[in-house]
Amino acid sequence: MLNFSNTNILLGVTGGIAAYKSAEIIRLFKKEGASVRVVMTESAKEFITPLTLQAVSGNEIHDSLLDVNAESAMGHIELAKWADIILIAPCTAETIAKITHGRADDLMGALILASEADVYIAPAMNMSMWLDASTQDNYKILEKRGITFIGPAQGEQACGDIGPGRLEEPEKIIEFITKLANKGPLSGKTITITAGPTREQIDPVRFISNNSSGKMGYSIAEAAIKYGAQVNLVTGPVSLDADKSINLHKINSASEMLDEVIKCMKSSDIFIGCAAVSDYKPSDYSIKKIKKEDNSSLDIELEKNEDILKYVSDNFSESYIVGFAAETSDVIENAKKKLLTKNLDMIISNDISDKSIGFDADENEVNVITKDETLLLKKDKKIRIARQILKIISANINK
Ligand code: PMT
Predict the structure, then answer these.
(1) How far apart are the CA of 325 and the centre of ligand 1, in A?
(2) pLDDT tens across 23-34, in order?
(3) Distance, CA 134 to ligand 1 centroid (Å)?
(4) What is the pTM of this model?
């Protein structure tokens, strides 16, 4: 059964003859329980009136980036956050090009940049425009970034040409999104993910830790839930909320993390070690707070923590095992060494010397490395990087 209850759909309508079909798309989404808001480009209004789409959606139309009234009601950032799914149907060659180049000179472009929602594009244009090298290049770039294309369909076009370029039929668009949204590429799989820092206590008030915020690991967990997986998130102390569907295992130290991971891995298909696990812990824990007046200097003896990732690859080798590599130099080469020494299926390398990515940043840029290939995922919000990583993992396990 189709079901979009509790789902917020943002429908982008751009200027093309197929814009009249957007009313039917809205009707079908609403029938399945979705809330729908509509963004129209100026040229879309030449083909269908805002009043029609307002009446069908039950919400006022959004059409301007710089409208003071619109901003006071639901500004473009709020609208971007509101959306669970963004569908642009019909989507012109112009809008595809705009999104490819990250332009934000109208509401549609700005929303795509600001939103963390899954984005679907249903193109509609003359077949020569669709087959043109520029449009095809843009299409491939957007697919690589994790945007899903629906169609275009083949057939007779408004101009009389016959070929690819028709908007896919509304029923098919809804069916396609339903399949991906309700039965994601990871449905039936259980994933265990580690996130955040660990804390290695020295005494009751002091500990060794690091700046991991948990954002990268939590983003992967959230994306995995959306893709239909059962998710165990073994997390160090962070100040983030996790989706209610995630099985949360809160720990402090690396040895507690290892214990929880072992329990979870007994029924997991995939392991993703994103946590910044402390490599060392104090050899002795002082039950009493160490007094500073007793010491002019303080030596703390450290001993190595178990490498959780290596433990998983040694003991759960039938699972697909993914590590992260936090590097400051030779980002790819050093990560490749970890891929081999820890016997992993994949390692995701990030350059933590760049403060705008990696630790505690909202964005990341990573190289996804397997034995066969290295793929750069360019700087983007962590949730989008997370989705791309999961799509690659799901393609690899289904090979
Ligand atoms: O949490 P954020 O603020 O969003 O930041 C994200 C991040 C930078 C922490 C993340 O993207 C990242 O790089 N995580 C791995 C951090 C790390 O410890 O890297 P490493 O190169 O030192 O370790 C390699 C791998 O071994 C990692 O998968 C790590 O989880 C694992 N490891 C390390 C030591 C240990 N004792 N046990 C482990 O499992």
Answers:
(1) 6
(2) 999 999 999 889
(3) 39
(4) 0.70
